[in-house]
Design a protein that fits this description.
7 strands, 8 helices, seven-stranded parallel beta sheet, 263 residues, Rossmann fold, alpha/beta
C-alpha cells in the first residue's frame, strides 16, 4: 500500500520529544519529508537521526523558539530551503505552568499568551503564503481536551489553547477556497513527560502516590488506560494526508472516551 504522505513535506514544531516526536515519527513512516523544530538542538539531532533510521524517510531539523517571531520565520524558511515546498504544519508547543488564578501575575499571562496562542498565529502566518501559492496544504494544531472541559490547575492552558482551537475553526472557513485544511487534535491523558509532571503535581497536592493518581484517571477513562503518543501521531498523519481531503475545521479528542461532552 502506498504511504499516505509520500513526497509531502511536513514541518513539526516541538518535534524533538513527546507528542511532536510521535507525529514526526508517524509522518516519516508514511513517507513524508519531515522538518523538526525545538529549542534543544541536541535532542533535535538525536530525534531526527532516530526517526530517519527507523522510517527510511528524509528527516532534518532546525532550532526553533516558538516564543520568538524571528526564530519562527527563520525555521520555516530553513524547512522550505531544505525541501522546496511545505505541505503540512504541526502547531505544537509545551504547556504553561500549572496553577490557579491567584498564582499568576501579568508576566505569567503574557508568557503563556506568547507560548501557546501567538506561536500558533505566527507559525500559521509563515506557512500560509507558500500553501496559498501551491493551492493546497494541511495544518494541524495540538491543543487539549481542556478546551471542551476545563482542567483544574491548568488555567493558563485552558484559556490559550481554547484560543488556538477557535483560531483554527475561524481560519478553516477562510482557507478552504485555497484548498488548505486546518484541524485541531485534543490530547487527553497520554503517556508523555508533560502528563507525568502533572500527575506528580496532583500527587503532591493531595498527599498521595503517583500510582494512585494514575489509577484514579484510569477509572475515568472508558478504555481504562492512558493513551500512547503514537496513537495521536497516527491521527495527525491521517489529517495531514489527502485521505482526509474533506475534513477541515474539526476538533477531534484523543482521550480514550474520557470527555463526557457531546460537542
Amino acid at each position: 500500500m502506498q504511504p499516505i504522505l509520500k513526497g509531502k513535506t511536513i514541518l513539526v514544531s516541538g518535534g524533538s520529544q513527546g507528542l511532536g516526536y510521535a507525529i514526526a515519527e508517524a509522518s516519516a513512516k508514511e513517507g513524508a519529508n519531515v522538518f523538526l523544530g525545538s529549542r534543544n538542538e541536541e535532542k533535535l539531532k538525536f530525534s531526527s537521526m532516530r526517526i530517519a533510521k527507523e522510517s527510511g524517510s528524509n528527516v532534518d531539523f532546525g532550532a526553533l523558539d516558538v516564543t520568538n517571531p524571528k526564530s519562527i520565520k527563520e525555521w520555516v524558511q530553513a524547512g522550505l530551503a531544505k525541501y522546496g515546498h511545505i505541505d503540512g504544519l504541526i502547531v505544537n508547543a509545551g504547556g504553561p505552568p500549572a496553577g490557579k488564578f491567584d498564582n499568576f501575575t501579568d508576566e505569567h499571562w503574557q508568557a503563556a499568551f506568547e507560548l501557546n496562542l501567538m506561536s500558533a498565529v505566527r507559525l500559521i502566518r509563515e506557512v500560509l503564503p507558500h500553501m496559498r501559492k501551491a493551492s493546497k496544504g494541511s495544518i494541524v494544531t495540538i491543543t487539549s481536551v481542556s478546551v471542551k472541559e476545563p482542567i483544574d490547575m491548568l488555567l493558563l492552558s485552558n484559556v490559550f489553547r481554547s484560543g488556538v482551537t477557535s483560531l483554527a475553526k475561524s481560519l478553516s472557513r477562510d482557507l478552504a477556497s485555497y484548498n488548505i485544511r486546518i484541524n485541531n487534535i485534543l490530547p487527553g491523558r497520554l503517556d508523555t513527560e508533560r502528563v507525568k509532571q502533572l500527575d506528580g503535581i496532583i500527587a503532591e497536592n493531595n498527599s498521595i502516590s503517583v500510582n494512585e493518581v494514575r489509577s484514579s484517571f484510569h477509572d475515568q477513562i472508558p478504555l481504562g488506560r492512558y493513551g500512547k503518543p503514537e496513537e495521536l501521531g497516527n491521527l495527525a498523519a491521517f489529517l495531514l494526508s489527502d485521505k482526509a481531503s474533506f475534513i477541515t475545521g474539526t476538533t477531534i479528542p484523543v482521550d480514550g472516551g474520557m470527555l463526557k461532552t457531546v460537542w
